[in-house]
């Protein structure tokens, strides 16, 4: 069975599926496989990433002053960069040759649950062969029980109204409106799906985090009114506030608002260590 990955796919790696060293070294600048998880509960943990292509949302953030920031993984979403159709067995082989002492695999996107069937199979094999911890990074719009069964940490990042790709924003990026853009505001909030992830952690030793990317103080009210007040089974320790920031410069601008929001509400602040360390490089 195959799965569609974004171009950088599995990263950072130094060997191919046969274990032969690659000519190109990773974008981390280090001549070794692996990086750290930069965000949330496991920030700083050595990890390998698998990035699946495609998303059911099209986020464009409002940064204020008529400035906008497009999804920080546009290659996974907007089809600007090639995707790679990989067999599950090839992915498992690549992981085998690059895992070393790493015990954490992060499945990210795009929105990985769009490919639920092959993803469940991949996670099953990764667990079976390597006994790794698996984090699923999801926008929280789709709950798939079969995928969830194989995941240890649900890293759910629900989107706020500031991400809606309205006409103004699309114009700014020279994009034409599609049905996905039109439906973004309807689809981005799925309380039932998020609650299903949370409920599953109560019956198992799985865990979850709700990671909100913020740009302004008013986002706190929306986080409470639209999400937290409609969900149960969470505590402040599950809530991570993260500044918008695809570059170090952007991060500097939005870190104060995220820090203040986290402290005021008793929530947790999430760094974006990979941006601090590697700035805007992909595949790090
Ligand atoms: S949900 Fe995530 S991957 Fe999808 S468009 Fe939004 S930021 Fe990008």
Describe what you observe in this structure.
By secondary structure, the chain is α/β, with parallel strands linked by helices. The protein has one domain (2-278): TIM Barrel (Alpha-Beta Barrel). The chain contains 10 helices and 12 strands. Strands 1, 2, 3, 6, 7, 8, 9, 10, 11 and 12 form a 10-stranded mixed sheet that branches. Helix 2 packs parallel to helix 3. The two termini are 27 Å apart. The mean pLDDT is 95.
Number of domains: 1
Q: What are the distinct ligands in this entry?
A: iron/sulfur cluster
Low-pLDDT runs of 5+ residues are none
- Percent of sequence in beta strands: 15-25%
Q: Which architecture per CATH?
A: Alpha-Beta Barrel
How would you characterize the largest beta sheet? Answer: 10 strands, mixed
Determine the N-to-C terminus distance.
27 Å
Shape: globular
Mean pLDDT: 95
Tell how many strands the DSSP assignment holds.
12
CATH top level class name? Alpha Beta
Structural class: alpha/beta
